[in-house]
Amino acid sequence: MREVVAFDVEGTLSTGAQWRGIGRYLVRHGRALSYRLFRLSR
């Protein structure tokens, strides 16, 4: 099975809402540490 992450390219979601959605996806799929490290680097 191929996993896909989708996000809003039309601008109807705020940037914060997009990152929260991506973060939830990554946490649920065992990538919480990667997500947290990425956020800390910004």
Account of the protein in words:
By secondary structure, the protein is mainly alpha-helical. The radius of gyration is 11 Å and the shape is flat. The chain is built from two helices and no strands. The longest helix is centred in the middle third of the chain and has 14 residues, at 15-28. The protein has helices at residues 15-28, 32-41. The protein has a domain at 15-42. The model has no long low-confidence stretch (mean pLDDT 78).
Helix and strand topology:
Elements (H helix, E strand, L loop, with lengths): L14 H14 L3 H10 L1
Helix pairs in contact: 1-2
Write a concise synopsis of the structure shown.
The chain is an all-alpha fold and 42 residues long. The protein is built from two helices and no strands. The longest helix is centred in the middle third of the chain and has 14 residues, at 15-28.
